[in-house]
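FORM 12-B: Structure-to-Sequence Request
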């Protein structure tokens, strides 16, 4: 730091269970994904180094609320509630929630049909909050979404609710023919990089993000994980 002219290294909290935003390469154990590449590019642009630390999502949110980590990137939806205790960068990805059921399920066609049904979610996420606030579903929360997905597959729950890009990725990767999404995309949500409340990093992170959007780097990273932009 400072007079040595060396770059500062910041720990970035993440939850490497959210394809294609952050995940561990099964062969090398290396952290990969859209968020990982974007965060590295932002750090490069803003002149600091990053070191990723993976943890359970609800612990990550609590950690950020108490200022335990300077930065977090984990497809974290910017919400009014979280903004009370965490600062966010400008939005970097527009998302939303979607229901998933078995392909032959005719009973659940939208969120209006989940009252009294068992719905799997990931603990501490916006999906869990959405179900609590808007439905009478029986919520089954798991530390990792894969367990909710498995329960939908084997019929132990009726549906799962989670971030649309991850649900679509999962169906494409391993649920084709067996699983489907139903209903509309719920609750437009945008992802932001989380920072400690009052952090000096908010401005440089936002400036770097804007530069990457202007100079094509953001689009390159986007296309690497999601294909050509519509
Ligand atoms: N976007 C969701 C949230 O912020 C879920 C993120 C995640 O599971 N990594 O609650």
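FORM 12-B RESPONSE
SEQUENCE OUT:
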């Amino acid at each position: 730091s400072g007079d040595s002219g060396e770059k500062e290294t910041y720990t970035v909290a993440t939850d490497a269970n959210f394809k294609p935003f952050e995940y561990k390469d099964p062969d090398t154990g290396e952290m990969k994904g859209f968020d990982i590449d974007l965060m590295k590019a932002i750090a490069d642009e803003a002149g600091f180094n990053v070191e990723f630390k993976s943890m359970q999502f609800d612990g990550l949110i609590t950690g950020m609320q108490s200022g335990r980590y300077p930065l977090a990137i984990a497809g974290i939806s910017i919400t009014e509630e979280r903004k009370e205790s965490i600062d966010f960068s400008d939005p970097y990805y527009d998302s939303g929630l979607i229901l998933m059921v078995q392909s032959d399920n005719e009973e659940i066609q939208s969120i209006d049909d989940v009252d009294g049904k068992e719905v799997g979610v990931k603990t501490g996420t916006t999906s869990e909050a959405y179900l609590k606030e808007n439905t009478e579903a029986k919520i089954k929360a798991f530390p990792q979404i894969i367990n909710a997905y498995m329960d939908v597959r084997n019929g132990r729950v009726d549906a799962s609710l989670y971030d649309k890009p991850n649900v679509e990725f999962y169906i494409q990767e391993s649920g084709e023919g067996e699983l489907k999404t139903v209903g509309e995309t719920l609750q437009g949500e945008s992802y932001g990089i989380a920072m400690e409340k009052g952090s000096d990093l908010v401005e440089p992170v936002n400036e770097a993000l804007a530069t990457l959007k202007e100079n094509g780097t953001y689009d390159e990273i986007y296309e690497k994980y999601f294909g050509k932009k519509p």
